[in-house]
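A protein record in our archive is deliberately plain, so that people and models can read it alike. The record that follows is passed on verbatim for readers who wish to inspect the format.
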Amino acid sequence: MRPTLLLALMGALACGQAAAQGIRNAPPPRALETAAYVFAAANVCGYRIGTAPFEALLARYQVTIEDVRPPRGPFGAKVQTIFTLMSNQMMQNRDAACRAVAGEYGPEGTIAPGILLPPAPAEAPPPAKQP
C-alpha cells in the first residue's frame, strides 16, 4: 500500500472517531471571561449565583455550566486562570468592585439581572436558655 493512501485511510478513521465523540469549537473568550467574572464576584463579595439566570446567560454563548466549571470542565482551567486574576483585582478595591458587579448582574442588574443574589443570611445562634 502506498504511504499516502495509508495516511489518508488513517486520517479518515481519526476524523470519524472525533466526530462520534462530539468535538466542538472552544467557546468565545467573552463567555469564559463572563463566567470567571461571576465566579470572582461570588468569591470576593460573597454573592450567591442564581443558577438558572447564569445558565441562560451562558446559553447565549452556546456554552453550558459544565464547560466552564473550574477545574473540571473542558475550559475550566482557562476560567480558573481568569478568575484568579479578576479576584485579585477586585480585592484591591473590594467595595467599589462589589457595587459595580451588583449593578451589572445583581437582582436589579443592567446586563443580566438575577445572576448574583445577596449572600445567604448567617445562621442565628440558638437562643440562650433562660433559668
